[in-house]
Amino acid sequence: MREGYESTELMYSGHLACAGCGATIAMRYALKAMGDDTVIVLPACCWSIIGGPFPYAAVKVPLIHTAFETGASTASGVKAGLDMRGEPETTVAAWVGDGGTFDIGIQALSGAAERNDDIIYFCYDNEAYMNTGIQRSSATPWGTWTTTTPSNYPKGQPKKNMMEIMAAHRIPYAATCSVAFPEDMINKIQKAKSIRGTKFIHIFSPCPTGWKAPSSLAVKIARLAVHTKVFPLYEVEGGLRYHINLNPKNLPVDEYLRLQGRFNHLSDEDIQKIQESVDREWERLLKKALDTI
Amino acid sequence: MKKIMVGNHAVSWGVMLARAEVISAYPITPQTSIVEELSVLCADGRLKARFIPVESEHSAMACCIGASAAGVRTFTATSSQGLALMHEMLHWATGARLPVVMANVNRALGSPFNIWGEQSDSLAQRDTGWLQIYCESNQEVLDTVIQSFKIAEQVLLPVMLVLDAFILSHTAEPVDIPDQKLADEFLPPFRPDLRLNAKDPHIFGCLAPPEYLMEFRYKIQQAMLQSKEICRKVDEEFGQTFGRKYGVVEPYRCEGADLILVSAGSVTSTARVAVDALREKGRKVGLVKLRLFRPFPKEELLDIVGKADKIAVLDRNFSAGIGGIFAHEIRAAFCNERERPPIYSYITGLGGRDTTLQILNEVIYQTYERPKPEEQSVWVGLRS
Amino acid sequence: MSKQIPLLREGEMPYQPISLASMEWNKTGSWRYLRPRFENKIPPCNEGCPAGQDIEGALVLIGKGRYLEAWDLFKEENPFPAVCGRVCYHPCESSCNRGDFDEPLSINALERFMADMASKHGRKPSLKKREKRPEKVAIIGSGPAGLTCAYHLVRMGYGATVFEALPVLGGMLRVGIPEYRLPKKILGEEIDQILELGVKVEVNARLGDGLSLDELKEYQAIFLALGNHRSRSLGISGEEARGVMSGVEFLKDVNLGKKVELGKRVAVIGGGNTAVDAARAALRLGAKPFILYRRTREEMPAFAGEVHEAEEEGIEISLLTSPVRVISQDGRVTQLECVKNRLGPPDEDGRRRPVEIKESNYTLEVDQIISAIGEEADLASLPKKLAVKDNTVPTDERGATKQTGVFAGGDITLQPHTVVHAIASGKRAAIFIDSHLRKQKWEGLFEALRVGEKGSLSMKRYLQDEKERVPLSGKTVLLKDLNLDYFEYKKRLKMPKAKASRRTGSFEEVTLGFNEETAVEEARRCFNCGVCNLCDNCYIFCPDVAVQKGKEGELNIIDYDHCKGCGICMEECPRDVIVMEVEGR
Q1: Closest to B141 (Cα-Cα) out of B36, B12, B230
Q2: Which of A198, B153, C157, C480 lies most in the core, judged by the most C-beta atoms within 10 Å?
Q3: In a shared domain, residues C310 and C360
């Protein structure tokens, strides 16, 4: 067994995810990192279905389903309740999709972050409202096809920078993770677990179904996203100190884009535009990281 | 111990005596002093609760649901716009069978903005599956808070207690504060078996497919029906412990009455005065206070008003198209009864407009005068 | 595994929707149309080794510090790892996929490391052996081909007797390759290990000189491995003078410890290993040798590494130079007339023919001329039935000659003239001699024992019970089949060598060998192409937790009840072990 990987599994086989689902790899490792003394708060998202219908469970930890926009607020309540029951060591984690984080749930998240409620807030980001059928969210990148941004009128707005929003709340810890780097993810989640306050973990979670890619490429796409700098791996402490965790190989974004059917309609100019914007954002991030040192 | 306190503070002190453990609320006029007083009580350490100052009422209810699912006693308070914002989560709390208790200060719903008393906000939530108890005085408010927790925790449905904006919430009255020890005896700690527990993991609120959802809903219906008896019993017990009880409905001078007023909330106090005055004059007028609204106490009500010639239902609320909601509910409850009195429906005092003795007398007079009820509710005090 | 719960009645249901069991009963395996399977494939190094050694397997063991077990693994196929680890031309390294990525593994150096360690620890080989059999086999020649054949035959229970013309065993390994490349002590140890298995030996027994094939009738089979010990003549006038000797003769004398008078200026003619060895040996004996080769450097058949070392040691190589005439005085060589060449059109073996440049002749002052332009076999003593042609014994793919029961291998047959090919032919002959003596069908053996597509065979598989043999994959893994995302550039650790200035003074080994730390580090660079090394990527990345850990040291297990066939395991396997096949319906 490779070092660092617990052999105890807290996620069952037989769940209802699509073949090749990145979100299930993410959950599997989040649970391994947090251990069994964990409560998951699960608002409406793909995982509401993946977890299985009554009377079955796909995870071995206690989990509460809740309404779409209430991920962070329910989690705050659960944490307060457990504290009052004398179980302050139990980790309370909100497991929310990009819709429930970037859009409808952003208010609750902002509220919890401002109060610095002691929860780990996971956003597993598949860049659209996948559960309801691949509609665009504010996490959908510029130029992407979705069912509400068809190919002849793809998304015209850039992806909302959620990490910056969370950094602006000055929460103790925020980090990006990718399912292609499970050791990095486990380390960051365990670090988050050891900190009191609101922790935000943004997991890049490819959806072969919604991204129109072969199911076998989920992990490869997640890795390329990091190495093309589309989704760099970094941490922000206290909203001010930036650390980049992995030096990307600086591959051209085209290598990442062309694996996914949702980008098929992009022209060379579009790809160039995306490359420039990715480079610019990376430069900004790099500057912040250098300023931290 | 007697204290002079406003209705909102009576709520807060009731919550303190009930030893709520997690409170999350968002301020809205005229509920604000509930939350303010609770903050003070928590800060002083007199109430050992976690107070979560959430960023909206929707989040407040979500917080309560989360905390209740974790197995602790939870409380929130709101009014009109806030209650409406919570609507989705009210359904959620019921379906999740969580004993959340909420105090709602009855206030009109915008648009246009109006911060004064009206019962439309809580009544608009009558389908959510929450029990609803309408309070007449600050004493009743404090007592009902304590009762609500006991009822909720037995029935495993959430309970809403309701008080009028400003007339109760901001008006000081003498209130007898029960002894904490007695309160503890009456209301033991809430420690459910089924809760979010890492040592006994379950998923709560699983997706219920068509094969199962009807049965879950049926269970809620059964619980709601059984809760009436529980409300009555708890009230009895409360009476034995603290010396005050209220019943699910309260008749006032209904013996031999040919016309009975039906009211809920603080207007009942004014109605008592009106009834007394008319009785003096020899009129056989009575009054029924509708305290429990959900579940609807049809039998108890029918028992009292069944033999009357007429009943006049006072609604400080309205639902566009059907008029007064209490009247509507009573009509629906009695529709299959052989012996039922004609139901005269009146709408008064919307948006905090005072329901004076004069208006009540007008109501009674009109009821006597009209041979049969109007199709639509009669709006009394309207400047037309 | 949890069971599916039958539809509950209202009275049986909990009052709120909570889970009562897990989802495991749900066999999501029914969703898939592609099915993954572990299939170990052929690593290109194994295929590239003519002796079919399990190089990848050995590298895994060295990487774990279990180098003595790695040595055991090599000894299953090849009795000469210490020899090969010094003198082999390592086609394994040319086949190594890492060579197309950054730099190939230093397999040759690692083979030598293993052998040196085994020697240091006094380890004896623990080999699979079979029961004793009544038949006896005669082996003519104790070079690498002959001794390898004997080694495998005694393992298979036969009596084996090796007949060697010289007084010492080892063939070209003993008398051809000089001490500084292959110390005799090291060679001796490995030969002893072969003899200890029960091989009988008769030295000073030359075929055609008191020993004839007819006399060997008491043997049920014969393996001819005489080797190429006769030097080709230069074909120029004056070459019969004193002071002109063949490279083969020169090296034999040096290796047998005889004193050789060389003089100072020694002209070595030829471009193969013999020429380079002769020049470097002459240097160490105090002479000033130089090499003359008729074509350019690219066409020199000698190992590039050897040529480079020779130049480091100060030996000049005169390219595009041919000898024309030996000039002697009093019957003793004094000068050599040479001519310069240019390259003309290609030869029948594909190399460009040297064409003399007219009027470019010149003479060199020489004290000694060593001619090393190629060796050939001396097969005059073989019976006509074997139909020797061009100094080569014709054989079929088994190594069988036209005479039943007589097999041949090594340099006398038509195959590349290298040590490892000789070893491979000895092993191959042993396998087919065994199947011949047992009167078994042999045609299927090539398919059953092959290591890749280049003709290498596995003795280990041959000695396994047919039922035990794992089915072979048809695929050799190339760089394009690997998932390179999991590999980082890392410099190859090279075999350390003694400094040139130190080398020229003695016959001590030029190459110094890896130490343990270096060996383990270099072995860990191996990509393990096509062979599962339990990296666990398939286990880690499965979204359905449908790849489970197997027992210690064994392959992971796929839970086909739940595998949805997404293919992530196949994609993330760095070494192409997982194949996806259409699910049989």
Answers
A1: B12
A2: A198
A3: yes
CB contact under 8 A, C541 and A25: yes
Of B22, B55, B198, Cβ closest to residue A77: B22
Does residue C58 form part of some domain?
A: yes
C469: confidence class by pLDDT, cuts 50, 70, 90: confident
Q: ipTM for the complex?
A: 0.94
* C465, C493, C522 - which closes a domain: C522
CA nearest to C549 within chain A: A1
DSSP H stretches of helix in C244-338: 247-255, 273-284, 304-312
Q: C396 and C429: one domain? A: yes
Burial class (CB in 10 A: 0-12, 13-18, 19+), C173: buried
pLDDT tens profile B178-215: 999 999 999 999 999 999 999 999 999 999 999 999 99
Q: Which residues of C touch A32 (CB under 8 A)?
A: none
Domain boundaries, position C271? 259-372
Which of the four pLDDT bands, split at 50, 70 and 90, describes residue C504? confident
Q: Which of C332, C356, C372 is the last residue of a domain?
A: C372
Q: The domain spanning residue C338 has which CATH number? A: 3.50.50.60
Residue listed under structure tokens 């009210």: B90
First to last CA, chain A: 36
Assigned domain for C9 exists: no
Q: Residue A5's CB: how many other CB atoms inside 10 A?
A: 16
Q: Contact A80/B55, CB-based, under 8 Å?
A: no
Token pair listed for C395: 């054989």
| Confidence (pLDDT) at C40 | 92
Closest CA to C427 of C79, C112, C81, C192: C79
C332 and C382 co-located in one domain: no
How many domains, in total, are found in chain C?
A: 3
Neighboring chains of B (3 or more beta-carbon pairs < 8 A): A, C
Q: Inter-chain contact B204–C16, Cβ cutoff 8 Å?
A: yes
Q: Which of A1, A12, A15 lies nearest to residue C549, judging by beta carbons? A: A1
Residue C338, pLDDT score: 93
The residues spanned by each domain of chain B are: 2-242, 249-379
Q: CATH assignment of B2-242?
A: 3.40.50.970
- Phi, psi torsion values for C327, nearest 5 degrees: -105, 125
CATH class label, A22-292: alpha beta
Q: Which residue of B has its CA nearest to C12?
A: B215
3-state DSSP assignment of residue C7: coil
Asked if residue C25 belongs to a domain, the reply is no
The nearest CA of chain A is from the CA of C519 a distance in Å of: 22
pLDDT at C209: 82
Which chain A residues have a beta carbon less than 8 Å from that of B128? none
DSSP-assigned letter for residue C288? E
C292/C207 same-domain check? no
C384: Cβ contacts below 8 Å, ≥ 6 apart:
none
> Rounded distance, CA B199 to CA A61, Å?
9
Enter the CATH code of domain B249-379. 3.40.50.920
| C144 and C112 in a common domain | no
Taking CA–CA distances from B206, the nearest residue in chain C reads C17
Tokens of A136: 């665009």
Tens digits of pLDDT across chain A (293 residues):
566 666 689 999 999 999 999 999 999 999 999 999 999 999 999 999 999 999 999 999 999 999 999 999 999 999 999 999 999 999 999 999 999 999 999 999 999 999 999 999 999 999 999 999 999 999 999 999 999 999 999 999 999 999 999 999 999 999 999 999 999 999 999 999 999 999 999 999 999 999 999 999 999 999 999 999 999 999 999 999 999 999 999 999 999 999 999 999 999 999 999 999 999 999 999 999 999 87
User: pLDDT, tens digit, for every residue of C392-424?
Assistant: 999 999 999 999 999 999 999 999 999 999 999
DSSP H or E stretch at residue A209: helix A208-211
